[in-house]
Amino acid sequence: MKPTTSLFARRVSLFWRIHFWAALIASPFALVAALTGILYIFTPQIEAALYRGLEQTTPAVVMRPLDEAVAAATAAAPPGWDLLSVAPAYRPGDTVKLVFAPGVATPG
């Protein structure tokens, strides 16, 4: 056996060993990224199933202004809870989605 052949074989073996360990270390991170990505993609469908009764209502004759909905929800929110986000109703029958959290207002 030539010395160059054994050197080549050792390098190939080393390459595959490094490749194996790199894949073994990186695979859990790739799996977590894939699973959380799938959850992120299907968030609207998951929320629609979880909040089925809260996202639709009987359409009113006239849609009320968004300011009125925000003011009513802010008045009904517990003291110390701040408004984080607003998702308006885009079609008749949709509801306005408001997200509140305790004590997150920026100091001002």
Output the structural class. Answer: alpha+beta
Low-confidence stretches: none
Mean pLDDT level: 87
The helix-strand sequence is HHHEE
Largest sheet composition: 2 strands, antiparallel
Number of β-strand runs: 2
Question: How many domains comprise the coordinates?
Answer: 2
Order of neighbouring strands in the sheet with most strands: 1-2
Helicity range: 40-55%
Report the principal-axis shape.
Answer: elongated
Strand content: 5-15%
What is the CA-atom radius of gyration, in angstroms? 28 Å
Ends apart, CA distance between termini: 78 Å
Number of DSSP helical runs: 3
Keywords:
108 residues; two-stranded antiparallel ribbon; alpha+beta
Describe the structure.
By secondary structure, the chain is of the alpha+beta class. The chain folds into two domains: 3-41; 56-102, no CATH class. The protein has three helices and two strands.
SSE blueprint and pairings:
Blueprint lengths: L2 H39 L1 H8 L15 H11 L4 E7 L9 E6 L6
Antiparallel strand pairs: 1-2
Compact description:
This protein is 54% helix and 12% strand. The chain has 108 residues and is α+β, with helices and mostly antiparallel strands.
